[in-house]
Amino acid sequence: MFLGIKQKILLGKSEVAGWGAFIKNPVKKGEYLGEYTGELISHAEAEKRGKLYERAGFSYLFDLDDKYCIDAYRMGNKLKFANHSSEPNCYPKGMFVGGDHRIGIFAKDNLKAGEELFYDYHYTKYQKAPKWFLDQSKKKESKNSGGKGRVVSKVK
Protein backbone atom coordinates (compact mmCIF):
# COMPACT_ATOMS: atom_id res chain seq x y z
CA MET A 1 0.00 0.00 0.00
CA PHE A 2 1.59 3.27 -1.03
CA LEU A 3 -1.10 5.85 -1.67
CA GLY A 4 -3.32 5.42 1.34
CA ILE A 5 -5.97 2.97 2.33
CA LYS A 6 -6.60 0.36 -0.33
CA GLN A 7 -10.05 -0.98 -1.07
CA LYS A 8 -11.15 -4.55 -0.39
CA ILE A 9 -10.90 -6.54 -3.62
CA LEU A 10 -12.71 -9.85 -4.01
CA LEU A 11 -11.86 -12.63 -6.42
CA GLY A 12 -14.70 -14.35 -8.25
CA LYS A 13 -15.77 -16.06 -11.43
CA SER A 14 -16.14 -13.50 -14.21
CA GLU A 15 -18.92 -13.60 -16.80
CA VAL A 16 -16.38 -12.11 -19.19
CA ALA A 17 -13.41 -14.47 -18.91
CA GLY A 18 -12.11 -16.80 -16.21
CA TRP A 19 -11.59 -15.07 -12.89
CA GLY A 20 -12.28 -11.43 -12.17
CA ALA A 21 -11.53 -8.80 -9.54
CA PHE A 22 -14.57 -7.29 -7.83
CA ILE A 23 -14.85 -4.29 -5.51
CA LYS A 24 -16.33 -5.17 -2.10
CA ASN A 25 -17.71 -1.74 -1.15
CA PRO A 26 -18.95 1.27 -3.13
CA VAL A 27 -16.16 3.56 -4.37
CA LYS A 28 -16.26 7.12 -5.71
CA LYS A 29 -14.74 8.22 -9.01
CA GLY A 30 -11.01 8.90 -8.70
CA GLU A 31 -10.52 6.89 -5.51
CA TYR A 32 -7.48 4.66 -5.11
CA LEU A 33 -8.36 0.96 -5.34
CA GLY A 34 -4.95 -0.58 -4.73
CA GLU A 35 -1.57 -1.31 -6.24
CA TYR A 36 -0.85 -3.71 -9.09
CA THR A 37 1.92 -5.71 -7.45
CA GLY A 38 4.42 -8.25 -8.68
CA GLU A 39 8.02 -8.92 -9.51
CA LEU A 40 9.94 -6.10 -11.22
CA ILE A 41 11.67 -7.56 -14.30
CA SER A 42 13.36 -6.30 -17.46
CA HIS A 43 11.59 -6.31 -20.81
CA ALA A 44 14.03 -8.98 -22.00
CA GLU A 45 12.95 -11.25 -19.15
CA ALA A 46 9.29 -10.36 -19.83
CA GLU A 47 9.72 -11.51 -23.44
CA LYS A 48 11.03 -14.90 -22.26
CA ARG A 49 8.29 -15.36 -19.68
CA GLY A 50 5.63 -14.05 -22.04
CA LYS A 51 6.31 -16.87 -24.49
CA LEU A 52 5.85 -19.45 -21.75
CA TYR A 53 2.73 -17.76 -20.41
CA GLU A 54 1.18 -17.53 -23.87
CA ARG A 55 1.54 -21.29 -24.32
CA ALA A 56 -0.13 -21.80 -20.93
CA GLY A 57 -2.99 -19.45 -21.90
CA PHE A 58 -2.45 -16.66 -19.38
CA SER A 59 -0.18 -13.75 -18.57
CA TYR A 60 0.09 -11.15 -15.82
CA LEU A 61 2.75 -8.92 -17.37
CA PHE A 62 2.31 -5.17 -17.09
CA ASP A 63 4.66 -2.68 -18.79
CA LEU A 64 5.85 -0.17 -16.23
CA ASP A 65 8.11 1.96 -18.45
CA ASP A 66 10.59 1.54 -21.29
CA LYS A 67 12.93 -0.55 -19.10
CA TYR A 68 10.79 -2.55 -16.71
CA CYS A 69 7.73 -4.71 -16.50
CA ILE A 70 5.79 -6.06 -13.53
CA ASP A 71 5.10 -9.80 -13.53
CA ALA A 72 2.24 -10.53 -11.13
CA TYR A 73 2.13 -14.27 -11.83
CA ARG A 74 3.85 -15.40 -8.62
CA MET A 75 3.88 -12.28 -6.45
CA GLY A 76 0.78 -10.37 -7.53
CA ASN A 77 -2.41 -9.56 -5.68
CA LYS A 78 -6.08 -9.84 -6.66
CA LEU A 79 -5.91 -6.79 -8.95
CA LYS A 80 -4.06 -8.96 -11.47
CA PHE A 81 -7.45 -10.55 -12.21
CA ALA A 82 -9.07 -7.33 -13.47
CA ASN A 83 -10.17 -8.09 -17.03
CA HIS A 84 -9.88 -5.95 -20.15
CA SER A 85 -12.56 -3.63 -21.45
CA SER A 86 -12.53 -0.93 -24.11
CA GLU A 87 -14.98 0.85 -21.76
CA PRO A 88 -13.16 0.39 -18.43
CA ASN A 89 -14.38 1.44 -14.98
CA CYS A 90 -10.87 1.85 -13.55
CA TYR A 91 -7.43 2.84 -14.80
CA PRO A 92 -3.76 2.29 -13.95
CA LYS A 93 -1.47 5.19 -13.13
CA GLY A 94 2.30 4.88 -13.03
CA MET A 95 3.92 6.64 -10.09
CA PHE A 96 7.34 7.05 -8.56
CA VAL A 97 6.99 6.60 -4.78
CA GLY A 98 9.85 6.53 -2.29
CA GLY A 99 12.35 5.82 -5.07
CA ASP A 100 10.31 2.93 -6.50
CA HIS A 101 8.15 2.62 -9.60
CA ARG A 102 4.56 1.66 -8.72
CA ILE A 103 1.25 1.15 -10.49
CA GLY A 104 -1.82 2.46 -8.72
CA ILE A 105 -5.29 1.42 -9.86
CA PHE A 106 -7.99 4.11 -9.58
CA ALA A 107 -11.76 4.20 -10.11
CA LYS A 108 -12.66 5.84 -13.42
CA ASP A 109 -16.33 5.97 -12.41
CA ASN A 110 -18.38 5.58 -9.26
CA LEU A 111 -18.40 1.85 -8.52
CA LYS A 112 -21.14 -0.15 -6.83
CA ALA A 113 -20.41 -2.86 -4.28
CA GLY A 114 -19.78 -6.15 -6.07
CA GLU A 115 -18.96 -4.54 -9.42
CA GLU A 116 -16.29 -6.24 -11.53
CA LEU A 117 -13.18 -4.18 -12.24
CA PHE A 118 -12.00 -3.57 -15.80
CA TYR A 119 -9.31 -1.49 -17.42
CA ASP A 120 -7.98 -1.11 -20.93
CA TYR A 121 -4.90 -3.26 -21.60
CA HIS A 122 -3.79 -0.73 -24.27
CA TYR A 123 -2.55 -3.03 -26.98
CA THR A 124 -0.47 -1.17 -29.55
CA LYS A 125 0.08 -1.93 -33.20
CA TYR A 126 3.33 -3.60 -32.08
CA GLN A 127 1.65 -5.80 -29.50
CA LYS A 128 -0.71 -8.38 -30.88
CA ALA A 129 -3.23 -9.90 -28.54
CA PRO A 130 -2.55 -13.62 -28.13
CA LYS A 131 -4.89 -16.13 -29.74
CA TRP A 132 -6.44 -17.21 -26.43
CA PHE A 133 -7.32 -13.57 -25.71
CA LEU A 134 -8.89 -13.05 -29.13
CA ASP A 135 -10.83 -16.32 -28.83
CA GLN A 136 -12.28 -15.15 -25.49
CA SER A 137 -13.16 -11.77 -27.01
CA LYS A 138 -15.06 -13.38 -29.89
CA LYS A 139 -17.05 -15.57 -27.51
CA LYS A 140 -18.06 -12.56 -25.43
CA GLU A 141 -18.74 -10.03 -28.22
CA SER A 142 -21.88 -8.72 -26.56
CA LYS A 143 -19.99 -8.14 -23.29
CA ASN A 144 -16.67 -6.53 -22.36
CA SER A 145 -13.86 -8.41 -24.10
CA GLY A 146 -11.66 -10.25 -21.65
CA GLY A 147 -8.71 -12.57 -21.24
CA LYS A 148 -7.49 -15.06 -18.69
CA GLY A 149 -4.92 -12.65 -17.31
CA ARG A 150 -2.80 -9.64 -17.93
CA VAL A 151 -1.20 -9.43 -21.35
CA VAL A 152 1.46 -6.78 -21.21
CA SER A 153 -0.76 -3.93 -20.18
CA LYS A 154 0.64 -0.42 -20.42
CA VAL A 155 0.59 2.38 -17.89
CA LYS A 156 -0.74 5.53 -19.52
Automatic annotation (TrEMBL):
Entry-linked Gene3D superfamilies: SET domain (2.170.270.10)
Source domain of life: Eukaryota
Any GO molecular function: histone H3K27 methyltransferase activity
Family annotation (Pfam families): SET (PF00856)
Record-level GO cellular component terms: nucleus
GO terms of biological process kind: heterochromatin formation
Protein name: SET domain-containing protein
